[in-house]
């Protein structure tokens, strides 16, 4: 269960996740309306086939083709990796055009780490790239000389990523009016 949210549904656990979209889905289909289920026919394979999403919003950024973030539920057969899910079914619960928020997040993350030039306010692609960079492995872990230092650096990196994820999710939720995921999930019916 992701973020403590999910419910039993026809022998599987429906789970909440995140998915970014552009003007169309990657296969060219139009983006469905909120509440409209998409179904994938055929084998489910990570990065190859199925309807994809990520458990954490920060992970979903790695696969973002555009700046619209969608809170989704996935259902049915699933395949998983730590940063992604491929499923037989996916539904958008709510969505938000988040380019400006991604930019603000990138600026705040950048200010916290003081690592990039933030002068270009109009470049959405730049905002996504900086946000992705915040998620990248901390260079200190790569430079650590001994296992203890490496473990400490990895723990610090994981904590920083979790903090970035929680911060970005909070910004997105606030901008979207703090939607009630549990109520939206329950409204989907059996």
Q: Low-confidence runs (pLDDT<50, min 5 residues)? A: 1-11, 114-123, 137-141
Shape, principal axes of CA atoms: globular
Order of helices and strands: EEEEHEEHHHHH
Summarize the amount of helix as a percent range.
25-40%
Radius of gyration: 17 Å
**How many distinct folded domains?**
2
Mean pLDDT: 79
**What is the structural class?**
alpha+beta
Major sheet attributes = 6 strands, antiparallel
Number of helices: 6
**What percent of residues are in strands?**
25-35%
Distance between the termini: 18 Å
Please summarize what this structure is.
This protein is 38% helix and 25% strand. By secondary structure, the protein is an alpha+beta fold.
Overview of the molecule:
The protein is α+β, with helices and mostly antiparallel strands. The protein folds into 2 domains: 6-97 and 177-187, no CATH class; 100-174, no CATH class. It is 38% helix and 25% strand. It has helices spanning 57-60, 99-113, 124-135, 139-143, 147-175, 181-187; strands at residues 6-9, 12-21, 37-39, 51-53, 68-81, 84-97. Strands 1, 2, 3, 4, 5 and 6 form a 6-stranded antiparallel sheet that branches. Helix 2 crosses helix 3 (124-135) and helix 2 (99-113) packs antiparallel against helix 5. The longest helix is centred in the C-terminal third of the chain and has 29 residues, at 147-175. The protein starts with 5 loop residues before the first strand and ends with a helix.
């Amino acid at each position: 269960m992701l973020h403590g949210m999910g419910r039993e549904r026809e022998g599987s656990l429906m789970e909440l996740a995140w998915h970014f979209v552009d003007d169309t889905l990657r296969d060219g289909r139009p983006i469905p309306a909120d509440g409209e289920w998409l179904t994938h026919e055929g084998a489910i394979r990570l990065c190859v086939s199925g309807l994809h999403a990520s458990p954490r919003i920060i992970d979903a950024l790695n696969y973002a083709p555009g700046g619209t973030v969608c809170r989704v539920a996935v259902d049915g057969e699933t395949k998983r990796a730590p940063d992604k899910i491929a499923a037989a079914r996916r539904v958008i619960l709510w969505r938000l055009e988040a380019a400006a928020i991604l930019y603000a997040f990138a600026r705040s993350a950048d200010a916290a780490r003081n690592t990039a030039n933030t002068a270009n306010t109009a470049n959405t692609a730049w905002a996504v790239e900086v946000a992705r960079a915040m998620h990248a492995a901390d260079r200190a872990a790569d430079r650590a000389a001994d296992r203890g230092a490496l473990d400490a650096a990895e723990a610090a990196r994981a904590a920083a990523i979790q903090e970035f994820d929680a911060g970005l999710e909070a910004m997105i939720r606030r901008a979207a009016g703090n939607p009630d995921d549990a109520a939206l999930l329950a409204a989907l019916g059996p």
